[in-house]
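Recap slide: dTDP-4-amino-4,6-dideoxygalactose transaminase, sequence and predicted structure.
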Amino acid sequence: MKEKIYLSSPHMGGTEQQYIVEAFKTNWIAPLGSNVSEFENSIESYLRKSSHVAALSSGTSAIHLSLILLGIGRGDEVICQSMTFSASANPIAYLGATPIFVDSEAETWNICPHHLEEAIKDRIEKGKKPKAIIAVHLYGMPYRVEEIEAISKKYDIPIVEDSAEALGSSYKGQKCGTFGDLSILSFNGNKIITTSGGGALVSRNLEYKSKAIFLATQARDDAPHYQHSHIGYNYRLSNICAGIGRGQMEVLDEHVSLRRKMNVFYSELFKNDSNITVFKEPSTEFFSNHWLSCISFKNSDKNFNPDGLREALMEENIESRPLWKPMHLQPIFKDAPYYGDKTSETLFNNGLCLPSGSNLDNQARERIKKTILAYTNS
Ligand SMILES: *Cc1c(COP(=O)(O)O)cnc(C)c1O
């Protein structure tokens, strides 16, 4: 069997283990220590825009805490981009709130401003104003920042910016992770950088950071004994994992540029193929980290379709994956309200994510190219 080519696998920079050794030497084998604060500092200076960062155990826990900080609870409604990974929406359900799903638009694949406003108006008319908007930069592509922010201001509904896939992306030169009232990052194993597992909550509001850390460390009141006036969580990032993060931050920009090169590789590969388009920025204002490079098929039939290509790649031990299946089509969310025109459903039916790692070499690229051309030319 040929060596497996993954969709997106961890790619160490080299200094990560030094920081882990440091944690052992100082005996901070705990969810606190200097790696945690240094990792936070390095993300803060990377994002700029006076961001305050709380390192957490996952991106999902960061979304959960964001919603808690916005005061969301039982019976509330929260708008969420439908086309996304389930972790964007699950925390709404943790809190006993109802997700209201909104479709994507065709250029960024992210939340559609038109359907977002339609959803807000209709929910208000039905008697409940949504309490937050969860917008996602899918595959690293920034959402329509200005249009979405304008709607958020007009109706006074805060944005939770799900930037789990978009560390290193930017819109008009401003980094993703700095646009929401609260923003979240993920450092899971397959993301642009990894701490093996981890995430962060980001905000310009320092109070949100302190409150997030308070809630993430079991919500202990200021007393010598254990006293609690809030329900707490065990959501802080470990000092070992944060050590990996420190090393990863040193190579983030290099890895973004390598992922973007993978996107150029696919653009070249498909440039004369009128049936397949590579997902790209709609204008130069958008800068995607191209966490995953995706394609969509214009005309599929039973012999030529995304699933056929996926299987042809699998035969060669090359991983590819369908796009995120929209949340309004998921069994678990089938009763949740949805506003849209099936754009995300069409994308899901016609798209495919291709191997995109920053650690793929020429040999891997040649194998991918050969397999894809054998399928598209057959
Ligand atoms: C990965 C991901 C998350 C969750 O992050 P974890 O660190 O895996 O909990 C949330 N939203 C999106 C869009 C993601 O891709």
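The radius of gyration is 21 Å.
The chain has a mean pLDDT of 97.
(End of recap.)
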